[in-house]
Amino acid sequence: MAFFVLLSTVSFTIGKHFCGDELIDVSVFVQADHCGMAMESDKNLVPEKKSCCNDEFEVVKGQDKLKITKYDDLQFDQQFFLSSFAYPYNKLFEGVPLQIIPHKNYSPPNLIADIQVLDQVFLI
Fold first, then answer.
1. pLDDT above 90 as % of the chain
2. Global confidence as pTM
3. How far is CA 4 from the centre of its chain?
């Protein structure tokens, strides 16, 4: 639910670069890559020509107002459904009873020799 709220409130910009009528690049959040045919505008040398390339930006706005509803504002049937859903769902996650481990404080005996090597018994 939090993911959907975040997704619906995020605004972002889609940038598109066209060369003539052909779409060259589309990008989200950053400026689109150019095709390399953009005209350099040096006003002293060449009179200004119209470029064949253009950029379009499309802004997708997320919602900026959220409606917050309290439990008391809900109707009785909605409160009943919410309560009857939440109670069994909460019971699914009850803790496991504490288990007693009888050999927790037991220390194993010291090994003097490796019995498997002495008897030459190996698992393959």
1. 7
2. 0.41
3. 11
